[in-house]
Write a structure and sequence with these properties.
The chain has 164 residues and is mostly helical. The protein contains five helices and two strands, in the order αααβαβα.
Length: 164
C-alpha cells in the first residue's frame, strides 16, 4: 500500500516536471525576444551617438542631431523601429558634458533604456561612448549601413580604407 502511494507520488511529480519544462522554455523564449529589441535599441543608439561625435566633433543636443546618422546607417529595409519609436525606447542625457563623461570612473550614466532593462550585444553604451571619447576608437563602427548586403556591418579597426 505504501509503495503504491510512493509510486503514484513519483509518477505525478515526474509528469508535472515534464509538463513544466515546456512552459519554462516558452517563458524564457518570449523574454529573450523582448531582449533582442532592447539590445538593438541600445546598440543602434550608441552607434548613432558615437558616429555623430566622430563626424561632427560635437555632443548631440537632441534626437534631431542623430537623424542624419539614423537615415544614413539604418536603411529602410532594415528598420527595427522608426526614428520616433527609437526615441521612446531610449533616454539619453543631451546635457551631459563630454569632458565629464570622458573622465568619469565608473562610466557616467548618460544612456539607458526607458523600460529599465540593461541589455546590449556590443556592451554597455555608457562605457562604449566613454571609451570613444577617451580613445577616438570605435570598434563597432557601422560601415556599410546596418543590414546592407555590402558586408557584415562592422569595420575592422585594424584595416585601412583600401582594404574595403
Amino acid at each position: 500500500m505504501r509503495s503504491a502511494r510512493l509510486k503514484r507520488l513519483i509518477v505525478t511529480f515526474g509528469v508535472l516536471l515534464l509538463l513544466s519544462i515546456p512552459c519554462i522554455y516558452i517563458s524564457v523564449f518570449l523574454r529573450s525576444l523582448a531582449s533582442f529589441s532592447d539590445a538593438y535599441a541600445s546598440d543602434w543608439t550608441s552607434t548613432f551617438v558615437i558616429d555623430h561625435l566622430r563626424t561632427s566633433g560635437d555632443w548631440p543636443e537632441g534626437w534631431d542631431d542623430l537623424r542624419d546618422e539614423y537615415d544614413r546607417l539604418a536603411p529602410a529595409s532594415h528598420y527595427a523601429w522608426t526614428f520616433d519609436e527609437l526615441q521612446t525606447r531610449v533616454w539619453f542625457d543631451w546635457n551631459a558634458d563630454p569632458d565629464d563623461v570622458r573622465n568619469a570612473d565608473p562610466p557616467q550614466e548618460i544612456f539607458r533604456l526607458t523600460n529599465g532593462r540593461q541589455v546590449s550585444f556590443n556592451g554597455d553604451p555608457n562605457e562604449l561612448i566613454r571609451a570613444y571619447l577617451r580613445t577616438g576608437e570605435d570598434p563597432w563602427r557601422v560601415d556599410p549601413p546596418i543590414g546592407s548586403q555590402g558586408g557584415h556591418g562592422r569595420v575592422d579597426p585594424q584595416s585601412d580604407e583600401s582594404d574595403r
